[in-house]
């Protein structure tokens, strides 16, 4: 199975910024990466009035948009699908980075900002990213140390 790492933390701690930088670091090293974003409050797939929006409104169960350099498949569900079903859809990558899904089981990197509450991740916590000095039982990385974090993950997952 493809290794999965969760980027966890409360809102506005820098999870998306870390995800972007990690994707870039892995791509520079030649790895193929999938990114999954949990939109806990829902999201819109398209702008009202566009063709794909009309297809969704008409009741399509899946809508696929194909262009010269991409393909997007939008599955519509009555309730959020299990994460294990999402893993099955992802193919041809070396690593899956997931932002959010902090209650799912799996190895996690917590992004911590000064004055923000900490998550209770137990033994799933494998690293922390913070610009504040922390005393942790797992490796800690500054927000600028993304290449070192990528190397840590390469070793952790034996990629």
Question: Could you walk me through the main structural features you see in this protein, from its secondary elements to its overall organization?
Answer:
The protein is an alpha/beta fold and 159 residues long. It has a single domain, classed as P-loop containing nucleotide triphosphate hydrolases (Rossmann fold, 3-Layer(aba) Sandwich), CATH 3.40.50. The chain has helices spanning 15-28, 51-58, 83-89, 146-156; strands at 4-8, 33-37, 62-66, 71-75, 95-99, 108-111, 125-129, 140-141. The strands form 2 sheets. It has a 6-stranded parallel beta sheet. A two-stranded antiparallel ribbon has the order 3-4. β3 (62-66) and β4 form a beta hairpin. α1 (15-28) crosses α4. The model has no long low-confidence stretch (mean pLDDT 89).
Could you name the key traits of this structure?
159 residues, alpha/beta, Rossmann fold, two-stranded antiparallel ribbon, 4 helices, 25% helix
Strand arrangement, major sheet: 2-5-1-6-7-8
Number of domains: 1
- CATH class category: Alpha Beta
CATH level 4 superfamily: P-loop containing nucleotide triphosphate hydrolases
Low-confidence runs: none
Describe the global form: globular
Proportion of helical residues:
25-40%
| Main sheet characteristics | 6 strands, parallel
What would the CATH topology be? Rossmann fold
